[in-house]
Amino acid sequence: MRILGVASATAALAIGLAGNAAACNIRDFTAKAVCDDNGKGVITVTDIDASGVEATVSVYLESNGSDAKLVGEKQVKGTREGATVSFSEDWTPNAQYRVHVKAGKIVDEDIEGGLTAPSEACKSTETPKPSETPKPSETPKPSDKPTEKPSATPSESDTTTAPAGDNAPSPAAGDSNLAETGANSNTGMIAGVAGALVVAGGGAVFFGMRRRGASKAS
After folding, report:
1. Residues 42 and 30: beta-carbon distance below 8 Å
2. pLDDT tens profile 52-69
3. Which of 74, 92, 93, 104 supports an S-S bond with 85, CB 3.0-4.6 Å?
4. 23-116 maps to which CATH number?
């Protein structure tokens, strides 16, 4: 009976130790600061808890021993192979981080020793985009209005004084009508005939008066 009791106690202890080994533990979590395929900074936290207890992982940037900012917070369920969560963080060389893990009532503590970023920053592998070639300035369109040519310098012939006859005033309307009918060209002749008739008439009157006087005297 004593031998059986010792064997039972030994088996119970072994089962207890195995259960404790399989339970979630802060030692199941590890953190690293790495660079992704594009040369960007990333913080990864891996959980190898085979029991699969869901845990909340919080990452804080440290400054002078206190939290400067919360980088991110994510949930993870561990596996025997390891389950990893990533936080995008453009970390600087030798930057300090605090990683806190809370898994139900089993774990509620920081990863021991915290996390220190590598001493060399990430190098971007992205190909820089070629700078755009500046577009040439648009050629100004010609004006729709034709360019006015300067007035030509008047030639000597244009500045010569025109003949007097060209500048003489045109005859009045009445004179032009007389010229067209021909009356204007006979005015002198009519005046001469009239004058001759006046003289002839005067002579006839003179001779008539002398003849009448002579007859009275005889």
Report:
1. no
2. 999 999 999 999 989 999
3. 74
4. 2.60.40
